């Protein structure tokens, strides 16, 4: 069980909910971080009194140091500061709740420092799953999933043998555009895409849910977390979001994990495993749910899910390219520069242009990520002929 926690991305959706969990189970918050939202980070620091806080943006970090000069909290900044945070002595668990590939290097460094990882950053395993899992095995480190779907599978597998697994079934809400045709996606607005039917999440992951890229990322993540062949991982649309995922066994048995759509539940279990502790979080009232329904995802309409499966099957650097193109395209969409469907068009074209490196190092993946971002922006400029502002890619949480 977690005793001393560092939260990488404490001002984002998962990070703030993790702090709610800490209040419930009395875990010491040893470290906190943000990209640039020092107003929120300062409030968190004054409440939880961590030993260290880190800010990715150096100028904001220096400003926070001045603000917290009346405390004994150490304030650091930049990537060096983030690394110091996740390797801080005394911390036993690092919750990685940043968005995007920004979480990759800090997660690897935390593993090398002997920290248990509570993983909420999908892109770490999407871009470098093989390297990360090898590092965890080499350092005898547990990686505990925080995503509701992967924590569901984690629980369903407890006490069962890998050779008895027939398939993993990842459930998906279907997002706000379930049932849409390709034509209907033409006029989707940012506001509509951010209106998720069941989950409250940050903007980037909410758009990924709307395109179903999020579910594609989860397929790749499950492949590495559970050492499972891609052919044994299935996606099933379940709009009620009550069954968070299932495991089917070779004797015909299926074990499902059910619960309310409340991310604090899997966050807490990642912190307390193998123990379970009481809380006042969401509960399911089956008399009000009425029925549970299921359907296959439409891979023709939701091409991002198809792209992710394809990238996972190709392997090598292709998943990193998929992720980089997606991060850029989603940012362009959120800025109102491209349409919802153009997210898929940009990703598809960048993947087509990529020459795969099958055995990349961590540095190779970081370089491929950079090049894929440039390629995505170049395609955007050629197709849309619009001014492109300078984006800040390496953000922590949503702030």
UniProtKB/TrEMBL annotation:
<feature type="binding site">
    <location>
        <position position="173"/>
    </location>
    <ligand>
        <name>1-deoxy-D-xylulose 5-phosphate</name>
    </ligand>
</feature>
<feature type="binding site">
    <location>
        <position position="121"/>
    </location>
    <ligand>
        <name>NADPH</name>
    </ligand>
</feature>
<dbReference type="GO" id="GO:0030145">
    <property type="term" value="F:manganese ion binding"/>
</dbReference>
<keyword id="KW-0521">NADP</keyword>
<dbReference type="GO" id="GO:0051484">
    <property type="term" value="P:isopentenyl diphosphate biosynthetic process, methylerythritol 4-phosphate pathway involved in terpenoid biosynthetic process"/>
</dbReference>
<keyword id="KW-0479">Metal-binding</keyword>
<feature type="binding site">
    <location>
        <position position="218"/>
    </location>
    <ligand>
        <name>Mn(2+)</name>
    </ligand>
</feature>
<feature type="binding site">
    <location>
        <position position="11"/>
    </location>
    <ligand>
        <name>NADPH</name>
    </ligand>
</feature>
<dbReference type="Pfam" id="PF02670">
    <property type="entry name" value="DXP_reductoisom"/>
</dbReference>
<comment type="function">
    <text>Catalyzes the NADPH-dependent rearrangement and reduction of 1-deoxy-D-xylulose-5-phosphate (DXP) to 2-C-methyl-D-erythritol 4-phosphate (MEP).</text>
</comment>
<comment type="similarity">
    <text>Belongs to the DXR family.</text>
</comment>
<dbReference type="InterPro" id="IPR013512">
    <property type="entry name" value="DXP_reductoisomerase_N"/>
</dbReference>
<feature type="binding site">
    <location>
        <position position="36"/>
    </location>
    <ligand>
        <name>NADPH</name>
    </ligand>
</feature>
<protein>
    <recommendedName>
        <fullName>1-deoxy-D-xylulose 5-phosphate reductoisomerase</fullName>
        <ecNumber>1.1.1.267</ecNumber>
    </recommendedName>
</protein>
<feature type="binding site">
    <location>
        <position position="196"/>
    </location>
    <ligand>
        <name>1-deoxy-D-xylulose 5-phosphate</name>
    </ligand>
</feature>
<dbReference type="GO" id="GO:0016853">
    <property type="term" value="F:isomerase activity"/>
</dbReference>
<feature type="binding site">
    <location>
        <position position="149"/>
    </location>
    <ligand>
        <name>1-deoxy-D-xylulose 5-phosphate</name>
    </ligand>
</feature>
<feature type="binding site">
    <location>
        <position position="148"/>
    </location>
    <ligand>
        <name>1-deoxy-D-xylulose 5-phosphate</name>
    </ligand>
</feature>
<dbReference type="InterPro" id="IPR003821">
    <property type="entry name" value="DXP_reductoisomerase"/>
</dbReference>
<feature type="binding site">
    <location>
        <position position="214"/>
    </location>
    <ligand>
        <name>1-deoxy-D-xylulose 5-phosphate</name>
    </ligand>
</feature>
<feature type="binding site">
    <location>
        <position position="209"/>
    </location>
    <ligand>
        <name>1-deoxy-D-xylulose 5-phosphate</name>
    </ligand>
</feature>
<dbReference type="InterPro" id="IPR036169">
    <property type="entry name" value="DXPR_C_sf"/>
</dbReference>
<dbReference type="InterPro" id="IPR036291">
    <property type="entry name" value="NAD(P)-bd_dom_sf"/>
</dbReference>
<keyword id="KW-0464">Manganese</keyword>
<feature type="binding site">
    <location>
        <position position="14"/>
    </location>
    <ligand>
        <name>NADPH</name>
    </ligand>
</feature>
<comment type="pathway">
    <text>Isoprenoid biosynthesis; isopentenyl diphosphate biosynthesis via DXP pathway; isopentenyl diphosphate from 1-deoxy-D-xylulose 5-phosphate: step 1/6.</text>
</comment>
<dbReference type="Pfam" id="PF13288">
    <property type="entry name" value="DXPR_C"/>
</dbReference>
<feature type="binding site">
    <location>
        <position position="149"/>
    </location>
    <ligand>
        <name>Mn(2+)</name>
    </ligand>
</feature>
<feature type="binding site">
    <location>
        <position position="12"/>
    </location>
    <ligand>
        <name>NADPH</name>
    </ligand>
</feature>
<feature type="binding site">
    <location>
        <position position="13"/>
    </location>
    <ligand>
        <name>NADPH</name>
    </ligand>
</feature>
<dbReference type="InterPro" id="IPR013644">
    <property type="entry name" value="DXP_reductoisomerase_C"/>
</dbReference>
<feature type="domain" description="1-deoxy-D-xylulose 5-phosphate reductoisomerase C-terminal">
    <location>
        <begin position="143"/>
        <end position="226"/>
    </location>
</feature>
<dbReference type="GO" id="GO:0030604">
    <property type="term" value="F:1-deoxy-D-xylulose-5-phosphate reductoisomerase activity"/>
</dbReference>
<keyword id="KW-0414">Isoprene biosynthesis</keyword>
<feature type="domain" description="1-deoxy-D-xylulose 5-phosphate reductoisomerase N-terminal">
    <location>
        <begin position="5"/>
        <end position="129"/>
    </location>
</feature>
<keyword id="KW-0560">Oxidoreductase</keyword>
<feature type="binding site">
    <location>
        <position position="218"/>
    </location>
    <ligand>
        <name>1-deoxy-D-xylulose 5-phosphate</name>
    </ligand>
</feature>
<keyword id="KW-0413">Isomerase</keyword>
<feature type="binding site">
    <location>
        <position position="37"/>
    </location>
    <ligand>
        <name>NADPH</name>
    </ligand>
</feature>
<feature type="binding site">
    <location>
        <position position="123"/>
    </location>
    <ligand>
        <name>NADPH</name>
    </ligand>
</feature>
<feature type="binding site">
    <location>
        <position position="122"/>
    </location>
    <ligand>
        <name>1-deoxy-D-xylulose 5-phosphate</name>
    </ligand>
</feature>
<feature type="domain" description="DXP reductoisomerase C-terminal">
    <location>
        <begin position="258"/>
        <end position="374"/>
    </location>
</feature>
